[in-house]
Fold Galactokinase.
Amino acid sequence: MSKLDTLTQRYRSIVGDDPEGIWFAPGRVNLIGEHTDYNDGFVLPFALERRAIMAAGLRDDDLLVLVSLELDEVRIPLADLAPGVGGWAAYLAGVVWALREAGHDVRGCTLVMTSDVPLGAGLSSSAAIECAAVAALCDLHGIEATPMERAKLARVAENAYVGAPTGLLDQAASTLCRADAGLFLDCRTLETEMVPLPMAEQGFEMLVLDTKTPHSHVDGEYGTRRASCEEAARILGVPALRDVTDLDAALARLDDEEMRRRVRHVVTENARVLEALEIARAGRLADLAPLLDASHASMRDDYEITVPTVDLAVEEARRAGAIGARMTGGGFGGCIIALCPAGEADRIGRAVAEAFAAAGYDAPEWFTALPAAGAGRLA
């Protein structure tokens, strides 16, 4: 039975009728631009074929019925919606809350979802289900909202309802991306550009390898680094670290060595994103490799957000034939990406798995990725 059939059957078992539609939204990998989003900087993600899929329909009562095929079922009266409710269902309930806070008359509904975006891997599994819910609820209620407005609503759900202090990168990628392209996003102006990433055409594929070291954006490390960046910007007298134009002069004004490292990562990472943009515009995808390597070194040494499993995966992927590799996502675990010659990603993934076994780590999981389309309606 297909996933769509399974979703429809589960929905029918709850409601007694077919869903009013089926929507999806993908996870994403960030090609480059880590921890730059909340510093008003630049990012360049692309969407994955891994995605959340959601069967949905309105109810004639004021009840949210939220179902995950992988997890469980949660029922929440609309009157009880309030930030601070934990668990996976908070990401869906938060979307309903965000829409209602924005003035939309969102009614009771049934949302039945499944997702093959790995949890806790840095591939935006939460944004995928949020953006699928936004797409479903906007369509069901006739809410006119641009893709960027939908991404913002999903971010409100994650920031204000779930309590994860993320930027807009994840939700924008899940909503706006197109197949065979990356999304260049200026996180201050919210200007976007679709950048061609014809990997298959140029003889490449992307290995996405989950180290199986879970992470969470709600934990203290993410917030600590964000606060450090904001304090550095205050000391330097700039609105955000993206406004630092003379890195050496800025570092000389900071007394704290740890803060200097954080600033150096953000400023150099922004520069790498802008260089990657020019490379992609010129169609020279092989030239992205040294930028991926430099980004990982910066995250490891200056931002200090990698862990031994992630570092080993990057090193072994390069040793096995990847032309460039880096951690992707918020850090402290999760996934790496490795730009590989076409047909080599699976072999390189097996090489990393062998290195993990030799080091006594749990076995990683991996898949081959090409840029996919953003959120939409399937049926």
Observations:
- The chain has a mean pLDDT of 95.
